[in-house]
Amino acid sequence: MADQLHFIDLETCLGSTIIGLIPPVVDRSKLLRERYGIPKNNKVCTSLVLGHPKYKYRQGIRRELAGVTYH
Q1: Spacing of C-alpha 9 from chain mean position
Q2: How distant, in Å, are the alpha carbons of 31, 48, 49, 61 from that of 26?
Q3: Which stretches of the chain score pLDDT less than 50?
Q4: CA angle in degrees (0–180, nearest 5) for 13-8-3
Q5: Helices (H), 13-56
Q6: Strands of the sheet with 14-18, listed across from one edge
Q7: Nearest one of 20, 18, 23, 14 to 4, comparing CA atoms
Q8: What is the C-alpha to C-alpha distance for residues 22 and 46, in angstroms, rounded to an integer?
Q9: E strands of the chain, at which residues?
Q10: pLDDT of 40-51, one tens digit each?
Q11: Element containing residue 4 per DSSP (H, E)
C-alpha cells in the first residue's frame, strides 16, 4: 500500500510520502489530538504528507522495478 501512495505527479509537481514517525507522536499527544480533532477512541495509524517540492526538476527518475517471484 505504501508504494501506491508514494507518488510524484509530474504535471502539477505535487508529491507525497508516508512518514511513519508521526502517528505514534500524535497518538500519544493530547494537544495534537485536540488540534486535529482526533477522538480519544480513534487510533492514528499512518500519515500521508502532500506538498509541492521546493526545487523544480526537469524530469523524474526512471527506474526498472525488480520482479517478484512467489513460491
Answers
A1: 14
A2: 8, 13, 14, 33
A3: 1-5
A4: 165
A5: 22-28, 30-36
A6: 8-9, 14-18, 48-51
A7: 18
A8: 8
A9: 8-9, 14-18, 48-51
A10: 899 999 888 888
A11: helix 2-5
